[in-house]
Structures are given as C-alpha cells and as structure tokens.
C-alpha cells in the first residue's frame, strides 16, 4: 500500500472550521486523505466556512473521524508525531519536517501514523506532547513565528509527500541538442547574419563569439536548435525575397522594444 | 544584504483579499516582506478579510506596492519567476521549487527577483508566462491539483527560506552519553532491578539483554543517562525505605497502563 494512505492528520481542539477546511485542501493537494479531529472545539458551529474552504477536498472533510480525546484519536497508531512551535527541555530532539519525513513514511509502511497539530491559540498541551513518540518543528523566520494551522498542515504534508516519491518533477521531453547540431546552428546563423547585413564577413568571427555565448546558454534542446535554425533560414529567405507585396505596413518588421 | 530582502512576491489579478492576507502571513513566516499586487481585481472591496487573515503580518499588507500592470510590477527585477500549474509545450523546463530555490537566491543576491502568482481562477495568462525568465511548478498529487493561492505562496516561500540557510534546525544541547556512562547505567539498573525483585540474580544476565537493547536505543544523551541513573537510585531507596507513612493510598505506586 501507499504509505501516504497510512498518515492520519490529527487536529486537536481546533477552534475554527475554516482552518479545518483549509487543512483538508492542503492534505488533498499532498495525497493525504485521512483527517481526525480530537476534542474539536469549533466556535463557528455551522461549519459553513470549513465547507467553503475545503473546496473540492470536501470528501476529506466529510470522511473525517471525530474522537472525544487525544488518546482515542491516536490509540491505533504505531507512531505519534507531535508538532510544536516551542523549544525547551525535553523538546530538544524535535526535528525539521524535511528531516523527519523519511522516518514518518517508514513507520507508515508498518501501520497508521498520527501527525498531530494543536490548538490555534496554544498548540499541544504538555501532557499531549508527552504522549508523542516523535516531535517536529516547522522552520519559520525568528521575526514571525506564528504559523497558521492549515499552513502548518500544508508544509508537513508537503514534506511527507515530497519524500514519498509520489511527485515526479516535470522534465524536458526534447532531447539535448548534440554538439554537431549546435555547430550547424552557429554556421547557419553566421551565414544569415552576414547575408542580411548585421555584420561584415570581416567582423563575423568576433561577432559570432557573442552570438555563440548566448546560444550556448540558451539553446539546450533539439527543439530549441530547430527553432533557431528555422529563424536563420527565414532571415535568409526574407532578405532574398523581400517583404511579400500584400503585407500591411508595419507588419513585415517589428523592431525589438 | 540578505537575499530574502530582494524577493518580491507578485500577485497578479488577485480576486480575494483573504488570499492576499494569508499570503502576507505565509511570507512573514518565511522571512519575505515585499509584496506587490499587479492589476489587483479584489472583489471584496473593503479588505476586511485580508486584514483579518494577515494577523500580525499586517506590515507586509500595509507596505504592499500596487501596479496597474504585470509589466510595471516586474520592470525593475533581474529575474521573473512565474508559477504555473499547467504543463504543455514551452513549459517543459519548469522546475520544482526545491530545485529552483538556490538559483532564485543566487539571482536575488544581484537584484530584485519577482516570484509571480496568477489569478485564483485561471493563473497566469500566456502573455504573462512569456515574460517570465523562469518557471516553477509546485508538486501536488495528481488526484487534487488545485492549490490555494496563499498555500502556493507558502510552499514557494518556504523552499526559498529553507534554501537560504536562514533556518537553523533545532539541535540537541545535551552531549552524547559516552560508553563509560552507559555501562555505569546498565550496572546500576541491574543492581536496582535485582534488589526490588524484578528479576533474580540468576535471570539477570538474560533479562539485562532486553533492558540494554531498550537503553541503547533510548538513552542517547548525558541528560538521558542522568535521568535513568536517578530512577535506579530512587528504586533502590524506595525499596529499602518503603513508602513514606503519610502517602495517601494509591499514590505510592502507579502501575503502568
């Protein structure tokens, strides 16, 4: 099974349904779908804000499990990861989410793992922290350490998702341009630029150094090379044949701005 | 200067002030304080929601710069990083924020760098993407790709912040326990556990293997060792002296549950 399916996001004593809704959306973005509320203390009883903010992650919200206590919400979990903003004695072994994510996934391959977030106003209580098997602290700027509940859920879920390998980064589909193609490109541009009068044949060796420098950075794929070869071809063609007679004034030539 | 001070978060055509407010908070968490709005299209004209959600990052909100167009908002920037959820031709070179963050910081050491986020409903337009020098796509689960604007800002800012080295992960302050101390610990526990009748002297060699296995994983620092040594000492003391006479019934002994 996918270890992400064994992650349980546990929100303890949450006050605002909007934060629950935003957390649902953040979870769904990161492939995590099991939400638990422990002793929820929602002040806006109608859940309207929460439903609005969950947007299309409403299944995460609807399928949430509710528990009367923290203990019950984590009872079946093989590990309980608490998030804390505070340091202090016995919290020195907290880890950053990036460092802890691989271990969380490893544990999640063995059974349900609770990742626990405290109240908006005072986080997890000491007696709740004492029940955690692991602690995690999200890195924030010392100038502004108060992080929103749903945003804390997002960063933690994002790190677990990124570590899970579920995300395949986009990659360039066009093959890298081989050196031979690049040399053809340089020669064709040299011909074209001389032909259209951008530079004299005498200047060309020097001027082409500048062009080559730009191409060597910019032309990386076969698609890139094919575009630039096409431009050189068209430069030559348009120079030799002139502007087609029915081209409106100003259309045939657009200066760079 | 800190390159984070050269990051400009540019929100284009944003519709909801709440998203601007949440973005301010996410930025402040990650040490980024310069917000620009390009052609804002805020539907809730009074900014009440935005001010509420900015919480204590209201200086980021107040100091925002507003521009009539995308072009003006990025005019002074040495690089323009567009965020896009879509792939497609000419977007194959998009990078994940973790991969692009070091380059963003490198550019930000030379001048202002715009990191641009499009509209809630349709992102950046093609003509806006065409003006970007770099493109970035946030990794999300294929099952739910629609990410909230402020959460996209958060993840991008988080990756830039993490790559900037501004975050020093928490670290254990207590020194690692040396082997000699660990051996003293094992000996003292052996004495204590035999003394209180947990095991006979005959069983002790075998039983201590289990205890040692637990301690070798759990007792890692000098502080840990000192706590466990204290417990062994107290076990011996309490066994020899008994429960103090004024202890209420049930207080002297708490079975593990």
Which oligomerization state do the chains in this entry correspond to? homodimer
Chain pair sharing the greatest interface: A-B, 44 and 44 residues
Strand order of the largest sheet of chain A: 3-2-1-5-4-6
Give unreliable regions of chain A as ranges.
Answer: 248-257
Helical residue percent band of chain A: 40-55%
Strand content of chain A: 5-15%
Shape of chain A: elongated
Biggest pleated sheet of chain A: 6 strands, parallel
Radius of gyration of chain A: 29 Å
Class inferred from helices and paired strands of chain A: alpha/beta
> What's the CATH topology name of the largest domain in chain A?
Alpha/beta knot
For the record, the CATH architecture of the largest domain in chain A stands as 3-Layer(aba) Sandwich
Q: Quick one: CATH class of the largest domain in chain A?
A: Alpha Beta
What pattern of helices and strands is seen along the backbone of chain A? EHEHHEHEHEHEHHHH
Mean pLDDT of chain A, to the nearest integer, reads: 88
Determine the N-to-C terminus distance of chain A.
Answer: 56 Å
Q: List the total number of helices of chain A.
A: 10
Number of strands of chain A: 6
Number of domains of chain A: 2
Topology:
The structure is a homodimer of 257-residue chains.
Chain A: E1 7-12, H1 17-29, E2 34-38, H2 48-54, H3 58-62, E3 65-67, H4 70-74, E4 79-83, H5 97-108, E5 113-117, H6 126-129, E6 134-136, H7 149-163, H8 179-195, H9 201-218, H10 222-241
């Amino acid at each position: 099974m996918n270890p992400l399916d064994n992650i349980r996001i546990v929100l303890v004593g949450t006050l605002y349904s909007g934060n629950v809704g935003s957390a649902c959306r953040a979870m769904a973005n990161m492939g995590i779908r099991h939400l638990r509320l422990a002793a929820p203390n929602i002040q806006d009883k109608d859940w309207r804000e929460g439903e609005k903010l969950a947007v299309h992650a409403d299944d995460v919200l609807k399928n949430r499990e509710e528990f009367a206590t923290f203990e019950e919400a984590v009872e079946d979990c093989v590990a309980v990861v608490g998030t804390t903003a505070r340091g202090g004695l016995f919290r020195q072994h907290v880890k950053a989410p990036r460092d802890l994510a691989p271990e969380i996934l490893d544990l999640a391959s063995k059974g349900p793992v609770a990742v626990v977030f405290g109240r908006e106003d005072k986080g997890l209580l000491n007696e709740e922290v004492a029940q955690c098997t692991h602690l995690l602290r999200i890195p924030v700027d010392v100038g502004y350490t108060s992080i929103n509940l749903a945003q804390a859920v997002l960063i933690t879920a994002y790190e677990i998702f990124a570590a899970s390998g579920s995300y395949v980064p986009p990659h360039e589909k066009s093959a890298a341009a081989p050196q031979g193609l690049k040399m053809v490109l340089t020669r064709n541009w040299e011909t074209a630029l001389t032909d259209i009068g951008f530079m004299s044949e005498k200047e060309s060796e020097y001027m082409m150094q500048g062009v080559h420098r730009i191409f060597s950075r910019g032309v990386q794929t076969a698609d890139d090379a094919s575009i630039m070869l096409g431009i050189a071809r068209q430069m030559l063609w348009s120079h030799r044949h002139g502007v087609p007679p029915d081209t409106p004034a100003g259309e045939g030539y657009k200066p760079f701005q």
